[in-house]
């Protein structure tokens, strides 16, 4: 709960408490705060028990910490009922990328002989963006539509 409170901050809080409540009332205030925290904990535990009893026997191992998405995902990844480890281990990104690269290189090398013959695939399926399109290739322009 107080994981990020350093020693200097803790000393500052104690000095501030002594200044606000005084040294004679401080023990009584600490007791009241501790009693309130205990009551809140008891209330939350009883509420958890009520919820578990209402859910029924199929949720007897239900933990409220599992509602945290990170905890839920971590627990599901550790539980191999779904076969997630097989899926994760079966997917090799480097192998997939090597196959795609090889396929692209094979395609480029296959289209190279047709480029020498001057066939339509001369540029390897690429479009030359530097040349102007012919007049017939342009779509009709409708000035009223714009």
TrEMBL record:
Residues annotated as coiled-coil are none
The compartments listed are: Cell membrane; Membrane
Q: Keyword annotations for this protein?
A: Cell membrane, Membrane, Protein transport, Translocation, Transmembrane, Transmembrane helix, Transport
Output the InterPro entries linked to this UniProt entry: TatA/B/E (IPR003369), TatB (IPR018448)
- Where are the stretches annotated Disordered? 105-146
| Basic and acidic residues composition-biased segments | 128-146
Q: Where is the composition biased (Low complexity)?
A: 111-120
Q: Where are the transmembrane segments?
A: none
Q: Which domain of life is it from?
A: Bacteria
Q: How does it sit in the membrane?
A: Single-pass membrane protein
Q: Which family does it belong to?
A: Belongs to the TatB family.
Subunit relationships: The Tat system comprises two distinct complexes: a TatABC complex, containing multiple copies of TatA, TatB and TatC subunits, and a separate TatA complex, containing only TatA subunits. Substrates initially bind to the TatABC complex, which probably triggers association of the separate TatA complex to form the active translocon.
The protein's role, per its UniProt record: Part of the twin-arginine translocation (Tat) system that transports large folded proteins containing a characteristic twin-arginine motif in their signal peptide across membranes. Together with TatC, TatB is part of a receptor directly interacting with Tat signal peptides. TatB may form an oligomeric binding site that transiently accommodates folded Tat precursor proteins before their translocation.
Protein name according to UniProt: Sec-independent protein translocase protein TatB
Q: Which organism is it from?
A: Streptomyces gilvifuscus
Q: Which gene encodes it?
A: tatB
